[in-house]
Amino acid sequence: SVLPGSIFEVNTSPMPNGGAVAVLHDITRIEQVERTQQDFVANVSHELRTPLTSISGYVETLLDHEQNLSTTARSFLTTILKNANRMHRLTEDLLALARVESSEAPLTPQPLRSDMLVRDAVQGVSGLVQENEATLEIGSLTEDDVFADHDAVLQVLSNLIENAIKYGQPRSGGRSHVIVSARTVQEPVAAVEFSVRDFGQGIASEHLTRIFERFYRVDKARSRESGGTGLGLAIARHMIQTQGGTIWAESNLNEGSTFLFTLPIALFPAVEDEEL
Ligand code: ADP
Question: What is the atom index within ligand 1 of the atom nearest the CA of 198?
Fold first, then answer.
């Protein structure tokens, strides 16, 4: 018997006589458990926000206004503040992940110029580039339109560029150099392929697919030090996949890494402002 609202996964196998066998797996229960877990994570993150804001608020006030704090008190309070901020980033990222996973934040795809998206993202990270004394280069760009949600694409591009700056320092020392490009591809379907390339230490092949999993970090200490939560790439993957794209990484140890993602080409071009 099939209950209304049941969710099935279909596996088909071809038969020698030219026919095919389709096997239906009822995954309703798995989906329900997953949804309950996502709701739980979202609720916990939400509940943690208020007490965390209170902790950092009080600590900041003490650090700013108490002149006669002992050196020890000042150093401990600074550590408390650093960790409260870290927890705050974690809860924000967990909430963002829960939102994209539950499709609670509906994406509004529209035709968007690929080159403009790259330029916007590059502009948005200019502060971080300066802070890290990194260099950011715009490579070749296509003017073709993708059909995607503006904010979601910007978030993914910014996240990849931030990672390239954070993890892209060459082993020999020196600063990160990052190249962001976008080109049109026809295979397997017409799409724009965005890429963010760095010349850092690279990622060993056994980590390459796993870094898109939640909380997976090649070097936990390094990620923590740079303010990472280990959720950025999981969020990026979800955002790209829900928009009909693919995201992956290529890397050679000691030579650098390239993060790439595709987005479908818009069938109808963007309407120019003056035409509106
Ligand atoms: P984090 O918050 O730790 O940066 P991400 O999900 O963005 O989390 O990335 C997961 C892990 O992938 C990072 O901790 C790092 O080990 C690795 N990584 C991501 N981008 C790069 C890169 N450009 N070069 C080398 N390693 C990277």
Answer: 23
> Does residue 266's CB lie within 6 angstroms of at least one atom of ligand 1?
no
Per-residue buried b or exposed e for 87-102, using 16+ beta carbons within 10 Å of the residue's own CB: bbebbebbbbbbbbbe
What does each C-alpha distance from 49 to 64, 82, 84, 95, 194 come to in angstroms?
22, 15, 10, 10, 34
Collect all residues with Cβ–Cβ distance below 8 Å to 172 and sequence separation of at least 6.
none
Which helix H or strand E contains 122, and what residues bound it? helix 114-124
Q: Would you say 214 and 238 are in contact if contact means Cβ atoms under 8 Å apart?
A: no
What is the CA(5)–ligand 1 centre distance, in A? 38
Burial of 58 (0-12, 13-18, 19+ CB in 10 A): middle
Beta-ladder partners of 76:
none
Number of C-alpha atoms within 13 angstroms, CB side, residue 80?
18
- Helix, strand, or coil (residue 55): helix
ipTM of the complex: 0.98
pLDDT, one tens digit per residue, over 73-102 is 999 999 999 999 999 999 999 998 888 888
CB 146 within 8 A of CB 263: yes
Ligand 1 atom nearest residue 222's Cα: 14
Amino acid at 268: F
Tokens of 16: 């020698």
- Any atom of ligand 1 within 6 Å of the Cβ of 167: yes
